């Protein structure tokens, strides 16, 4: 397949002779970044939303693909769970646009009830993810963030093989068990020739509200060993904080609260921008 017409031409690690990427000629997406972990419950979706908001604040055009088909949470994190996505007469899907002009697509936007279960086998789920890339009218985007499901199975493999992913942002927590599973995801990226830009450690510490002392939950020496073993770099660490936990109520935050959330992720986003060359 030719790279001509691909919005990620020259910006992905795929071999042109074996590339199976299908593109929508109506879309022009400069960079695709997968937010991945390999482990559930580490806050990938929350980090995805925080990164999207920070990028939008810097003036970038941002989209989010919720690729966690059986457990989508992006709509609720934007307090957009009552929104619906609609199709054009050409059968393209129009993404839901939320605050800051961020465009998002999630299977929950296509379901009658958000609590309805998705009882599908892997190939069907993988096909939906491909359609979220080819059939959604993303338009012009500087960055499309993909909120990945846990694990290194069908969906992760489909995304890395069938979408022109620029690179991956890993999310972890400092527990040794989690780090081991995240390492599996990192090694998958290596085998798929997809670069891992960096790692964000979520829920890494607690800051005392009285004296502002940082209370570490785990041995930081193990964290340093993890980065040495995986040859990755740390973008930043985030605390256990109610403003992050309650991100779905972001619109109700005062400006000071919004700035606290923004400042926590801003340095990591600056590093991401530099690494993707955006």
Number of strands: 11
Give the rounded overall mean pLDDT.
89
Alpha carbon gyration radius: 18 Å
Report the β-strand fraction as a percent range: 15-25%
Structural class: alpha/beta
The rough form would be described as globular
Low-confidence stretches: none
How many helices? The count is 8
- SSE topology string: EHEHEEEEHEHEHEEHEHH
* Cα-to-Cα separation, first versus last residue: 26 Å
Q: What summary fits the major beta sheet?
A: 9 strands, mixed
Share in helix: 25-40%
Quick structural overview:
This protein is of the alpha/beta class and 278 residues long. Helix content is 33%, strand content 21%.
Describe the structure.
The protein is an alpha/beta fold and 278 residues long. Helix content is 33%, strand content 21%. The protein is globular. The two termini are 26 Å apart.
Topology record:
Blueprint: E1 28-36, H1 44-57, E2 62-66, H2 74-77, E3 86-87, E4 93-94, E5 96-97, E6 103-105, H3 122-134, E7 140-147, H4 154-162, E8 167-172, H5 176-191, E9 196-207, E10 214-216, H6 220-230, E11 234-239, H7 242-245, H8 255-276
Parallel strand pairs: 1-7, 1-8, 2-6, 2-7, 8-9, 9-11
Antiparallel strand pairs: 3-4, 5-6, 9-10
Name some characteristics of this structure.
alpha/beta; 278 residues; two-stranded antiparallel ribbon; nine-stranded mixed sheet; 11 strands
